Amino acid sequence: MRSLLALMLLAVFTGCSATPDAATPQTQRAITPVPADQYHATLAAARTVLTDLGYTLDRDDHRFGILTTRPLDAATLAEVWRPDNRSAGLAAESTLSEIRRTVRVTLTPLTRSNPPTHFALAVEVELARKHAPLRYLNGSARTVFATLDDLPTEWEARGLEPEYWQPVRRDATLEAHLTERILDRLANMS
Predict the structure, then answer these.
(1) CB 3.0–4.6 Å: which of 8, 99, 114, 127 could bond 94 by disulfide?
(2) Rounded mean pLDDT of the chain?
(3) CA atoms lying within 13 Å on the CB side of residue 121
(4) For residue 84, which of 106, 129, 52, 130 has the smallest C-alpha distance?
């Protein structure tokens, strides 16, 4: 009972809302210029940073300058050693619901010259929340959650899934942190 009360108080005081920060525009991504002669080293640095943080690469397209990762479950409040939650609010949110992150790193030509003189480094981190509409609170002391045994025929006819991941927003603080780590790694490689 105490742990449930503590979780409820934590949710109230950390303000874990699903709305993005007003100071962080969600449509604009931070772009960092990188000289063309550091194209290969930048991709290698990004690859190393992502794998060091526990991400598994899903796409490693050197020719087009794209790295993407497989989804990684977000750290909870109990996992303080993991660096992916950059705020207490995100840690509380990932503790109370299932959240995962996917990272996309791109290097695109910044100039129109051929060959380009600079590339734009952009890091995007997408947060997705798991929805399980067939799970519900049953009020029992032994099992808090229960599931509907059969997918309702109406849902089945519409092709709805019993569980799915829905993109929520971007994690701008982790994007900035990853960009900084990639640039630091790039500087140490030189």
Answers:
(1) 99
(2) 75
(3) 23
(4) 52
